[in-house]
């Protein structure tokens, strides 16, 4: 495959002017069984290029242990793209933003003193180089000069929205080139002068990211610098991500079509973000922090041309019409939608109490003060803190300090209150009589590390401060010491011992089974539940929260099996009824503020 070049302010391929018409599909947000279908729909819409990030935090969950299998098999994704006739815009990061947990960085880096991400920091660059070398050992052969589909590589991502360390950006560029990135390099930033100044790097074509509005003004901000490069929109935001407890955000098909028309009329190239958003399976969602902590939903549907399940939408056809207006008929590619199934009601007849089965979790570690999730070697999930406190202690108020991000506090096995960052903060009383001992258990959930905003440098999860007991002013306070800290990884919860039961208060794990004669995509609907995490056949679908706007969790057919299937719900705050539903359509736009 020929290499892309840049001449006279335009891209050239095989000696002819070429426009990059790229659409974003993240391989790690779409089940691999559906990659081929999504890529074919991209081509059938008139696109000639697919864009993807990588996810360092999944490829190297443990330091030095790399995983490129199954849904992380990026080599297979690139192979399919090439077989279908698509080129690739590769965005290796390391920072992705993408509303992804900590923007793609692995949480184990938080354990290393003196490490600073996204700057000319020796420790950070050493770990990054190790990852980049492993990545390129696998994908270097996919570059165009070797006959592969990769024609563009992006250096870092929106760096001007974070910092202005020019030395770091040069080292980042050189690291990719030394690992095997050949051909044209680009950067991608917002159109503000400060963003472009911070993110533009010598030897890289500056792309600019924007929504469908004021297209020409966005490009003007780049052109006035007189760099002479081809114009490109690095991210055309034809949709938006959703956050829990906020209304769904939409971008109309007409607005997308108008914006694309202006881009093509300007003679520019484009990367449409997202062509298919997919799903933040597990607990991989990120969070934003401006004035407060805001968590991204499990669905990353993004109001995209392809729905979360990969179905063509009204926006798909509006975009296809614009592309064909400028570039002629799109290729004829045979594509279909997946079957959708309604499996009905699932009775949740069996239960497991997490606190009662702590011996089935990884062994606790004892220290005077609570350990963070990162110190326990856990990236996604919960941490359980436990302490036996001897009396006599006069009653006071329990303060669990800096919690990241939501804590259920139990005293002698009974829920005493819930404490959240930037949210609910129950008043919890605690005291111990003469000759008695009371147990405090605190179950803390990591709701997602910040991927954008002023907390982006990285924050640990769990309890970051001490736990104290305090009395009215003038009577002092006391730090409670002697804590067992225990990791609660999500991939272990389905292995607990479930027994018949009818408890509805949370936290509680609930299990039921259902039969599937025909396998199809389905959507888990939990109208009687409050908030928690759901699993199908041991796979974590993601988080749910009745507040919305997301009301269903996407269940891809490849995660089901003919015959009996198992559903497990980890309900944190209590359910009205012990049954769930599996329906044939998503519900992503209902907000119920009474569940805040």
- Our count of helices gives 9
How many beta-strand runs?
36
Our measurement of the CA-to-CA distance between the termini, rounded to an integer number of angstroms, reads 53 Å
Main sheet summary: 8 strands, parallel, barrel
What's the oligomerization state?
A: single chain
Strand numbers in spatial order across the main sheet: 4-5-6-7-8-9-10-11
Poorly predicted parts: none
General shape: globular
Compute the average pLDDT: 96
Q: What is the percent of helical residues?
A: 10-25%
- Estimated radius of gyration: 25 Å
Percent range for β-strand residues: 25-35%
Summary of the model, kept short:
With 596 residues, the protein is α+β, with helices and mostly antiparallel strands. The chain is 17% helix and 31% strand.
Describe this structure in words.
This protein is of the alpha+beta class and 596 residues long. 17% of the residues lie in helices and 31% in strands. Strands 4-5-6-7-8-9-10-11 form an eight-stranded parallel beta barrel, surrounded by five helices. Strands 29-15-30-35-32-33 form a six-stranded antiparallel beta sheet, with no helix packed on it. Strands 16-28-17-23-20-21 form a six-stranded antiparallel beta sheet, with no helix packed on it. A hairpin with a 6-residue loop joins β26 (467-470) and β27. The termini are far apart.
């Amino acid at each position: 495959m020929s290499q892309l070049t840049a001449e006279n302010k335009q891209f050239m391929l095989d000696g002819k002017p070429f426009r990059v018409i790229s659409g974003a599909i993240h391989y790690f947000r779409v089940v691999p069984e559906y990659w081929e279908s999504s890529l074919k729909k991209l081509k059938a819409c008139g696109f000639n290029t697919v864009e993807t990030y990588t996810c360092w935090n999944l490829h190297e969950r443990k330091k030095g242990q790399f995983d490129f299998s199954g849904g992380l098999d990026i080599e297979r994704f690139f192979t399919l793209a090439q077989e279908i006739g698509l080129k690739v815009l590769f965005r290796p990061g390391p920072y992705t933003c993408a509303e992804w947990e900590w923007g793609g960085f692995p949480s184990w880096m938080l354990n290393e003193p003196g490490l600073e991400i996204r700057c000319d920091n020796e420790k950070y660059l050493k770990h990054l180089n190790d990852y980049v070398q492993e990545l390129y050992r696998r994908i270097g052969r996919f570059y165009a000069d070797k006959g592969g589909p990769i024609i563009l590589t992006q250096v870092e991502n929106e760096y001007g929205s974070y910092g202005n360390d020019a030395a770091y950006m040069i080292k980042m560029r050189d690291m990719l080139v030394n690992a095997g990135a050949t051909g044209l390099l680009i950067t991608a930033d917002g159109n503000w002068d400060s963003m472009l100044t911070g993110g533009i790097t010598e030897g890289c074509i500056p792309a600019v990211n924007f929504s469908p509005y004021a297209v020409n003004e966005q490009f003007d901000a780049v052109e006035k610098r007189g760099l002479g490069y081809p114009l490109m929109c690095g991210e055309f935001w034809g949709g938006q991500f959703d956050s829990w407890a906020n209304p769904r955000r939409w971008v109309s098909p007409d607005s997308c079509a108008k914006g694309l028309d202006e881009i093509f009329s300007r003679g520019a190239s484009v990367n449409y973000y997202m062509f298919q958003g997919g799903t933040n399976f597990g607990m991989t969602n990120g969070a934003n922090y401006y004035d407060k902590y805001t968590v991204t939903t499990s669905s990353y549907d993004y109001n995209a041309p392809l729905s979360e399940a990969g179905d063509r939408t009204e926006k798909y056809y509006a975009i296809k019409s614009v592309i064909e207006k400028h570039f002629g008929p799109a290729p004829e590619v045979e594509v279909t939608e997946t079957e959708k199934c309604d499996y009905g009601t699932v009775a949740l007849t069996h239960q497991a109490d997490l606190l009662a089965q702590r011996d089935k979790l990884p062994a606790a570690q004892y220290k005077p003060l609570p350990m963070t999730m990162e110190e326990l070697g856990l990236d996604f999930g919960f941490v359980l803190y436990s302490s036996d406190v001897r009396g006599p202690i006069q009653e006071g108020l329990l303060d669990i300090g800096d919690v990241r991000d939501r804590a259920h506090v139990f005293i002698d096995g009974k829920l005493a209150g819930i404490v959240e960052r930037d949210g609910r903060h129950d008043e919890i009383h605690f005291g111990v009589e003469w000759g008695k001992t009371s147990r405090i258990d605190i179950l803390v959930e990591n709701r997602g590390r910040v991927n954008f905003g002023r907390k982006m440098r990285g924050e640990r999860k769990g309890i970051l401060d001490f736990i104290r007991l305090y009395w009215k002013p003038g009577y002092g306070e006391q730090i409670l010491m002697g804590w067992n800290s225990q990791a609660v990884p999500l991939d272990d919860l389905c292995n607990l011992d479930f027994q018949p039961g009818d408890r509805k208060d949370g936290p509680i794990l609930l299990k039921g089974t259902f039969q599937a004669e025909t396998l199809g995509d389905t959507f888990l609907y939990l109208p009687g539940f409050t908030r928690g995490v759901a699993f199908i056949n041991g796979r974590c679908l993601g988080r749910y929260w009745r507040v919305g706007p997301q009301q269903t969790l996407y269940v891809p057919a490849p995660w089901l099996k003919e015959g009996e299937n198992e559903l497990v719900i980890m309900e944190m705050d209590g359910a009205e009824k012990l049954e769930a539903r599996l329906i044939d359509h998503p519900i992503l736009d209902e907000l119920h503020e009474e569940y805040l």
